[in-house]
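Ticket 4471: requesting a sanity check on a complex prediction with pyridoxal-5'-phosphate. Repro inputs:
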Amino acid sequence: MPRYVIDEAALRRNLEILKSVSDRTGAKILLAQKAFSCAAVYPLCARHLAGTTASSLFEAKHGREFFGGETHVFAPAFAPGEMDELLGVVDHIVFNSPRQLALYGAAARARGVSPGLRVNPEVSVAATPAYDPCRPGSRLGATRAAVDAWSARHPAMDIDGLHFHCLCEQGLDELRRVLAGFEAKFGDMLPGLRWVNFGGGHHITRAGYDLEGLAGLILGFRRRHPGMEVYLEPGEAVALDAGTLESRVLEIQPPGEDGVSNAILDASAACHMPDVLEMPYTPRVTGASPGAAGPFAYRFGGPTCLAGDEIGTYSFPAPLKEGDTVAFEDMAIYSMVKNNTFNGVNLPDIAIRREDGTVDTWRTFGYADFAARV
Ligand SMILES: *Cc1c(COP(=O)(O)O)cnc(C)c1O
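Returned C-alpha coordinates:
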Protein backbone atom coordinates (compact mmCIF):
# COMPACT_ATOMS: atom_id res chain seq x y z
CA MET A 1 0.00 0.00 0.00
CA PRO A 2 -0.57 2.31 -1.73
CA ARG A 3 -0.97 0.57 -5.05
CA TYR A 4 -2.36 1.14 -8.51
CA VAL A 5 -4.61 -1.67 -9.68
CA ILE A 6 -5.11 -1.87 -13.43
CA ASP A 7 -8.32 -3.58 -14.45
CA GLU A 8 -7.80 -5.79 -17.49
CA ALA A 9 -11.53 -6.25 -18.16
CA ALA A 10 -12.09 -2.46 -18.28
CA LEU A 11 -9.02 -2.06 -20.45
CA ARG A 12 -10.29 -4.70 -22.84
CA ARG A 13 -13.66 -2.91 -23.14
CA ASN A 14 -11.84 0.28 -24.17
CA LEU A 15 -9.60 -1.59 -26.59
CA GLU A 16 -12.55 -3.29 -28.25
CA ILE A 17 -14.21 0.09 -28.84
CA LEU A 18 -11.02 1.48 -30.35
CA LYS A 19 -10.57 -1.60 -32.52
CA SER A 20 -14.13 -1.27 -33.78
CA VAL A 21 -13.28 2.26 -34.94
CA SER A 22 -10.25 1.06 -36.89
CA ASP A 23 -12.13 -1.94 -38.28
CA ARG A 24 -14.90 0.33 -39.61
CA THR A 25 -12.75 3.15 -40.92
CA GLY A 26 -9.35 1.69 -41.74
CA ALA A 27 -7.79 4.30 -39.44
CA LYS A 28 -4.81 3.06 -37.45
CA ILE A 29 -4.92 3.70 -33.72
CA LEU A 30 -1.76 4.08 -31.65
CA LEU A 31 -1.32 4.16 -27.87
CA ALA A 32 0.18 7.48 -26.74
CA GLN A 33 2.51 6.12 -24.09
CA LYS A 34 2.82 9.40 -22.25
CA ALA A 35 -0.61 8.69 -20.71
CA PHE A 36 -0.14 5.01 -19.97
CA SER A 37 3.01 2.93 -20.29
CA CYS A 38 2.23 -0.28 -18.42
CA ALA A 39 4.08 -3.00 -20.32
CA ALA A 40 2.33 -5.69 -18.23
CA VAL A 41 -0.77 -5.19 -20.37
CA TYR A 42 0.92 -4.26 -23.67
CA PRO A 43 0.31 -7.73 -25.15
CA LEU A 44 -3.45 -7.19 -24.64
CA CYS A 45 -3.25 -3.66 -26.08
CA ALA A 46 -1.17 -4.84 -29.05
CA ARG A 47 -3.90 -7.28 -30.06
CA HIS A 48 -6.25 -4.30 -30.57
CA LEU A 49 -4.07 -1.36 -31.63
CA ALA A 50 -1.60 -0.73 -34.47
CA GLY A 51 1.33 0.38 -32.31
CA THR A 52 2.53 3.19 -30.08
CA THR A 53 3.55 6.79 -30.22
CA ALA A 54 6.25 8.33 -28.10
CA SER A 55 7.30 11.76 -26.90
CA SER A 56 10.95 10.86 -26.40
CA LEU A 57 13.70 8.36 -27.10
CA PHE A 58 12.88 6.38 -23.96
CA GLU A 59 9.18 6.05 -24.75
CA ALA A 60 10.04 5.08 -28.32
CA LYS A 61 12.41 2.34 -27.11
CA HIS A 62 9.79 1.16 -24.63
CA GLY A 63 7.11 0.91 -27.33
CA ARG A 64 9.43 -0.92 -29.69
CA GLU A 65 10.61 -3.33 -26.98
CA PHE A 66 7.34 -4.21 -25.26
CA PHE A 67 4.50 -3.38 -27.68
CA GLY A 68 5.73 -3.85 -31.23
CA GLY A 69 3.68 -2.83 -34.24
CA GLU A 70 4.33 0.66 -35.52
CA THR A 71 6.46 3.01 -33.45
CA HIS A 72 5.93 6.74 -33.96
CA VAL A 73 7.59 9.65 -32.22
CA PHE A 74 6.98 13.38 -31.90
CA ALA A 75 8.92 15.86 -29.81
CA PRO A 76 8.95 19.68 -29.75
CA ALA A 77 12.68 19.44 -30.52
CA PHE A 78 14.94 16.41 -30.90
CA ALA A 79 18.38 16.27 -29.31
CA PRO A 80 21.15 15.74 -31.86
CA GLY A 81 22.92 13.18 -29.65
CA GLU A 82 19.82 10.97 -29.54
CA MET A 83 18.88 11.04 -33.21
CA ASP A 84 20.94 8.07 -34.34
CA GLU A 85 19.50 5.74 -31.70
CA LEU A 86 15.98 7.13 -32.16
CA LEU A 87 15.98 6.49 -35.91
CA GLY A 88 16.91 2.89 -35.19
CA VAL A 89 13.70 2.25 -33.21
CA VAL A 90 10.93 4.32 -34.88
CA ASP A 91 9.23 3.99 -38.24
CA HIS A 92 7.48 7.39 -38.25
CA ILE A 93 8.94 10.64 -36.96
CA VAL A 94 6.97 13.87 -36.64
CA PHE A 95 8.93 17.11 -36.58
CA ASN A 96 7.63 20.18 -34.82
CA SER A 97 8.97 22.75 -37.28
CA PRO A 98 10.29 23.00 -40.83
CA ARG A 99 13.69 23.74 -39.28
CA GLN A 100 13.73 20.46 -37.31
CA LEU A 101 12.67 18.67 -40.48
CA ALA A 102 15.51 20.30 -42.41
CA LEU A 103 17.98 19.23 -39.70
CA TYR A 104 16.97 15.58 -39.43
CA GLY A 105 14.55 14.71 -42.26
CA ALA A 106 17.19 13.41 -44.66
CA ALA A 107 18.71 11.21 -41.94
CA ALA A 108 15.24 9.80 -41.26
CA ARG A 109 14.70 9.05 -44.95
CA ALA A 110 18.08 7.37 -45.18
CA ARG A 111 17.08 5.03 -42.34
CA GLY A 112 13.68 4.22 -43.89
CA VAL A 113 11.77 6.31 -41.31
CA SER A 114 8.70 8.15 -42.63
CA PRO A 115 8.96 11.88 -41.85
CA GLY A 116 6.07 14.21 -41.12
CA LEU A 117 5.42 17.72 -39.87
CA ARG A 118 3.23 18.74 -36.95
CA VAL A 119 1.08 21.69 -37.85
CA ASN A 120 -0.98 24.03 -35.73
CA PRO A 121 -4.46 24.53 -37.22
CA GLU A 122 -5.00 27.44 -34.79
CA VAL A 123 -8.38 26.12 -33.68
CA SER A 124 -8.53 26.40 -29.88
CA VAL A 125 -10.98 23.94 -28.38
CA ALA A 126 -9.29 22.79 -25.15
CA ALA A 127 -10.96 23.91 -21.93
CA THR A 128 -7.86 25.43 -20.33
CA PRO A 129 -4.73 27.07 -21.82
CA ALA A 130 -2.43 24.50 -20.17
CA TYR A 131 -3.98 21.83 -22.41
CA ASP A 132 -4.39 23.96 -25.53
CA PRO A 133 -1.61 23.48 -28.10
CA CYS A 134 -3.30 26.20 -30.19
CA ARG A 135 -2.96 28.84 -27.46
CA PRO A 136 -1.43 32.15 -28.55
CA GLY A 137 2.34 31.83 -28.84
CA SER A 138 2.20 28.03 -28.70
CA ARG A 139 5.50 26.25 -29.33
CA LEU A 140 3.68 23.15 -30.60
CA GLY A 141 3.24 22.73 -34.34
CA ALA A 142 3.96 25.00 -37.30
CA THR A 143 1.31 27.54 -38.19
CA ARG A 144 0.44 28.06 -41.82
CA ALA A 145 2.27 31.40 -41.65
CA ALA A 146 5.40 29.65 -40.36
CA VAL A 147 5.21 27.04 -43.12
CA ASP A 148 4.80 29.74 -45.78
CA ALA A 149 7.63 31.88 -44.41
CA TRP A 150 9.93 28.84 -44.46
CA SER A 151 8.81 27.66 -47.90
CA ALA A 152 9.49 31.07 -49.44
CA ARG A 153 13.19 30.71 -48.68
CA HIS A 154 13.86 26.95 -48.83
CA PRO A 155 13.42 23.98 -51.17
CA ALA A 156 10.17 22.00 -50.92
CA MET A 157 9.77 20.02 -47.68
CA ASP A 158 10.27 16.28 -48.06
CA ILE A 159 7.50 14.78 -45.90
CA ASP A 160 5.08 11.86 -46.07
CA GLY A 161 2.50 13.21 -43.66
CA LEU A 162 1.04 15.94 -41.51
CA HIS A 163 0.16 15.71 -37.83
CA PHE A 164 -2.08 17.85 -35.66
CA HIS A 165 -2.96 17.50 -31.98
CA CYS A 166 -5.42 20.02 -30.55
CA LEU A 167 -7.86 18.08 -28.35
CA CYS A 168 -7.90 17.19 -24.67
CA GLU A 169 -10.59 14.87 -23.31
CA GLN A 170 -12.90 15.92 -26.11
CA GLY A 171 -15.72 14.63 -28.23
CA LEU A 172 -16.61 14.59 -31.88
CA ASP A 173 -17.81 18.20 -32.20
CA GLU A 174 -14.39 19.54 -31.28
CA LEU A 175 -12.68 17.12 -33.66
CA ARG A 176 -15.01 18.28 -36.43
CA ARG A 177 -14.03 21.90 -35.84
CA VAL A 178 -10.32 21.12 -35.69
CA LEU A 179 -10.42 18.93 -38.79
CA ALA A 180 -12.30 21.60 -40.73
CA GLY A 181 -9.69 24.18 -39.67
CA PHE A 182 -6.87 21.80 -40.58
CA GLU A 183 -8.26 21.12 -44.04
CA ALA A 184 -8.97 24.81 -44.67
CA LYS A 185 -5.43 25.82 -43.69
CA PHE A 186 -3.36 22.85 -44.87
CA GLY A 187 -5.58 20.99 -47.36
CA ASP A 188 -3.53 22.20 -50.32
CA MET A 189 -0.47 20.40 -48.89
CA LEU A 190 -2.20 17.02 -48.75
CA PRO A 191 -1.97 15.82 -52.38
CA GLY A 192 1.04 13.52 -52.63
CA LEU A 193 1.19 12.81 -48.89
CA ARG A 194 0.64 9.30 -47.49
CA TRP A 195 -0.71 9.89 -44.01
CA VAL A 196 -2.38 12.35 -41.66
CA ASN A 197 -2.25 11.93 -37.90
CA PHE A 198 -5.24 13.38 -36.01
CA GLY A 199 -3.29 13.37 -32.70
CA GLY A 200 -4.78 12.43 -29.34
CA GLY A 201 -7.29 13.86 -26.88
CA HIS A 202 -10.21 11.95 -28.42
CA HIS A 203 -12.35 10.66 -25.54
CA ILE A 204 -13.56 7.81 -27.72
CA THR A 205 -14.17 5.32 -24.91
CA ARG A 206 -16.17 7.71 -22.73
CA ALA A 207 -19.86 6.79 -22.36
CA GLY A 208 -21.88 8.66 -24.94
CA TYR A 209 -19.05 9.37 -27.40
CA ASP A 210 -20.51 9.55 -30.89
CA LEU A 211 -18.75 6.53 -32.42
CA GLU A 212 -21.03 6.54 -35.44
CA GLY A 213 -20.17 10.17 -36.11
CA LEU A 214 -16.45 9.51 -35.71
CA ALA A 215 -16.58 6.70 -38.26
CA GLY A 216 -18.44 8.97 -40.67
CA LEU A 217 -15.95 11.81 -40.16
CA ILE A 218 -12.92 9.59 -40.81
CA LEU A 219 -14.51 7.89 -43.82
CA GLY A 220 -15.48 11.29 -45.23
CA PHE A 221 -11.90 12.52 -44.83
CA ARG A 222 -10.56 9.43 -46.56
CA ARG A 223 -13.02 9.89 -49.44
CA ARG A 224 -11.88 13.49 -49.90
CA HIS A 225 -8.25 12.37 -49.81
CA PRO A 226 -8.09 8.99 -51.53
CA GLY A 227 -5.32 6.67 -50.42
CA MET A 228 -4.54 8.74 -47.32
CA GLU A 229 -3.74 6.71 -44.21
CA VAL A 230 -5.34 8.15 -41.05
CA TYR A 231 -3.82 7.75 -37.61
CA LEU A 232 -5.34 8.52 -34.22
CA GLU A 233 -3.10 8.44 -31.16
CA PRO A 234 -5.19 8.58 -28.01
CA GLY A 235 -3.62 8.06 -24.60
CA GLU A 236 -6.44 8.61 -22.11
CA ALA A 237 -9.06 6.79 -24.15
CA VAL A 238 -7.04 3.57 -24.07
CA ALA A 239 -6.97 3.24 -20.29
CA LEU A 240 -9.88 5.50 -19.31
CA ASP A 241 -11.47 4.26 -16.08
CA ALA A 242 -9.28 1.17 -16.21
CA GLY A 243 -7.58 1.41 -12.84
CA THR A 244 -7.69 2.68 -9.29
CA LEU A 245 -5.20 3.98 -6.78
CA GLU A 246 -5.77 2.22 -3.48
CA SER A 247 -4.51 3.99 -0.39
CA ARG A 248 -4.79 3.56 3.35
CA VAL A 249 -5.99 5.95 6.03
CA LEU A 250 -3.03 6.67 8.32
CA GLU A 251 -4.58 9.21 10.66
CA ILE A 252 -7.90 10.97 11.16
CA GLN A 253 -7.85 14.37 12.84
CA PRO A 254 -10.76 15.74 14.89
CA PRO A 255 -13.22 17.84 12.85
CA GLY A 256 -12.07 21.42 12.21
CA GLU A 257 -14.10 24.66 12.29
CA ASP A 258 -15.90 23.63 9.11
CA GLY A 259 -16.90 20.27 10.59
CA VAL A 260 -14.63 18.38 8.24
CA SER A 261 -11.93 16.02 9.51
CA ASN A 262 -8.56 15.87 7.83
CA ALA A 263 -7.72 12.30 6.94
CA ILE A 264 -4.07 11.65 6.14
CA LEU A 265 -3.55 8.94 3.54
CA ASP A 266 -0.46 7.07 2.44
CA ALA A 267 -1.13 8.29 -1.12
CA SER A 268 -0.25 11.80 -2.18
CA ALA A 269 -1.74 14.10 -4.80
CA ALA A 270 1.66 15.69 -5.34
CA CYS A 271 3.47 12.36 -5.79
CA HIS A 272 0.89 9.94 -7.14
CA MET A 273 -1.97 11.94 -8.67
CA PRO A 274 -0.28 15.12 -9.92
CA ASP A 275 -3.10 15.94 -12.33
CA VAL A 276 -5.35 16.50 -9.31
CA LEU A 277 -3.18 19.57 -8.60
CA GLU A 278 -2.17 20.42 -12.17
CA MET A 279 -5.50 20.31 -13.98
CA PRO A 280 -6.89 20.65 -11.24
CA TYR A 281 -9.74 18.23 -10.57
CA THR A 282 -11.23 16.10 -7.79
CA PRO A 283 -11.03 12.37 -8.48
CA ARG A 284 -13.92 10.04 -7.75
CA VAL A 285 -13.60 7.86 -4.64
CA THR A 286 -15.32 4.48 -4.52
CA GLY A 287 -18.27 4.53 -2.12
CA ALA A 288 -18.08 8.28 -1.39
CA SER A 289 -19.70 11.39 -2.80
CA PRO A 290 -17.76 14.58 -3.44
CA GLY A 291 -18.22 17.45 -1.02
CA ALA A 292 -18.94 17.83 2.70
CA ALA A 293 -22.73 17.49 2.53
CA GLY A 294 -22.96 13.97 3.94
CA PRO A 295 -22.80 12.96 7.61
CA PHE A 296 -19.17 11.76 7.61
CA ALA A 297 -17.00 14.18 5.70
CA TYR A 298 -13.24 13.98 5.28
CA ARG A 299 -10.67 16.15 3.61
CA PHE A 300 -8.10 13.76 2.15
CA GLY A 301 -4.48 14.80 2.18
CA GLY A 302 -1.18 13.13 1.43
CA PRO A 303 1.72 12.27 3.75
CA THR A 304 3.98 15.05 2.39
CA CYS A 305 4.73 18.44 3.97
CA LEU A 306 3.11 20.33 1.12
CA ALA A 307 0.12 22.26 2.50
CA GLY A 308 -1.54 21.97 -0.88
CA ASP A 309 -1.18 18.18 -1.04
CA GLU A 310 -4.96 17.84 -0.71
CA ILE A 311 -6.97 15.52 -2.89
CA GLY A 312 -10.46 16.71 -2.05
CA THR A 313 -13.35 16.55 0.42
CA TYR A 314 -15.64 13.54 0.38
CA SER A 315 -18.67 12.31 2.30
CA PHE A 316 -19.13 8.71 3.38
CA PRO A 317 -22.27 6.93 4.62
CA ALA A 318 -20.37 5.60 7.65
CA PRO A 319 -17.32 6.80 9.59
CA LEU A 320 -13.87 5.97 8.27
CA LYS A 321 -11.26 4.57 10.58
CA GLU A 322 -7.53 4.36 10.49
CA GLY A 323 -6.35 1.46 8.37
CA ASP A 324 -9.34 1.66 6.00
CA THR A 325 -8.73 1.48 2.29
CA VAL A 326 -9.69 4.45 0.12
CA ALA A 327 -9.77 3.85 -3.64
CA PHE A 328 -9.43 6.72 -6.12
CA GLU A 329 -10.97 5.94 -9.49
CA ASP A 330 -9.74 6.42 -13.05
CA MET A 331 -6.11 6.37 -11.97
CA ALA A 332 -4.52 4.31 -14.75
CA ILE A 333 -3.84 7.37 -16.92
CA TYR A 334 -1.36 10.19 -16.32
CA SER A 335 -0.54 8.70 -12.93
CA MET A 336 2.17 6.01 -12.94
CA VAL A 337 3.89 7.86 -15.79
CA LYS A 338 4.09 11.04 -13.67
CA ASN A 339 4.98 9.57 -10.27
CA ASN A 340 7.71 11.07 -8.18
CA THR A 341 9.29 10.47 -4.78
CA PHE A 342 8.91 14.02 -3.39
CA ASN A 343 9.47 14.01 0.39
CA GLY A 344 10.89 10.50 0.06
CA VAL A 345 7.38 9.11 -0.31
CA ASN A 346 7.54 5.64 -1.82
CA LEU A 347 6.09 4.90 -5.24
CA PRO A 348 2.89 2.84 -5.16
CA ASP A 349 2.99 -0.79 -6.21
CA ILE A 350 1.51 -1.55 -9.61
CA ALA A 351 -0.84 -4.53 -9.78
CA ILE A 352 -3.03 -6.01 -12.50
CA ARG A 353 -6.51 -7.36 -11.87
CA ARG A 354 -6.75 -10.15 -14.42
CA GLU A 355 -10.03 -10.99 -16.08
CA ASP A 356 -10.44 -14.06 -13.86
CA GLY A 357 -10.34 -11.80 -10.79
CA THR A 358 -6.84 -12.63 -9.59
CA VAL A 359 -4.61 -9.66 -8.77
CA ASP A 360 -0.94 -9.90 -9.74
CA THR A 361 1.59 -7.48 -8.36
CA TRP A 362 3.67 -6.31 -11.31
CA ARG A 363 5.99 -3.75 -9.71
CA THR A 364 7.06 -2.86 -6.20
CA PHE A 365 9.38 -0.03 -5.27
CA GLY A 366 11.56 0.81 -2.34
CA TYR A 367 14.36 2.89 -0.90
CA ALA A 368 16.73 1.98 -3.74
CA ASP A 369 14.39 3.61 -6.30
CA PHE A 370 14.31 6.80 -4.25
CA ALA A 371 18.03 6.86 -3.64
CA ALA A 372 18.80 6.26 -7.32
CA ARG A 373 16.73 9.29 -8.37
CA VAL A 374 17.88 11.99 -6.00
C1 LIG B 1 -0.68 14.03 -25.15
C2 LIG B 1 -0.63 13.66 -26.57
C3 LIG B 1 -1.38 12.57 -27.05
C4 LIG B 1 -2.33 11.79 -26.17
O1 LIG B 1 -3.29 12.62 -25.63
P1 LIG B 1 -4.52 12.05 -24.75
O2 LIG B 1 -5.17 13.30 -24.25
O3 LIG B 1 -3.94 11.26 -23.63
O4 LIG B 1 -5.37 11.25 -25.64
C5 LIG B 1 -1.26 12.25 -28.37
N1 LIG B 1 -0.45 12.94 -29.21
C6 LIG B 1 0.28 13.99 -28.79
C7 LIG B 1 1.14 14.72 -29.74
C8 LIG B 1 0.22 14.39 -27.45
O5 LIG B 1 0.93 15.44 -27.04
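Notes from triage: The pocket of pyridoxal-5'-phosphate is lined by residues 32, 34-35, 74, 165, 168, 199-201, 233-237 (CB under 6 Å). Leaving this open until the requester confirms.
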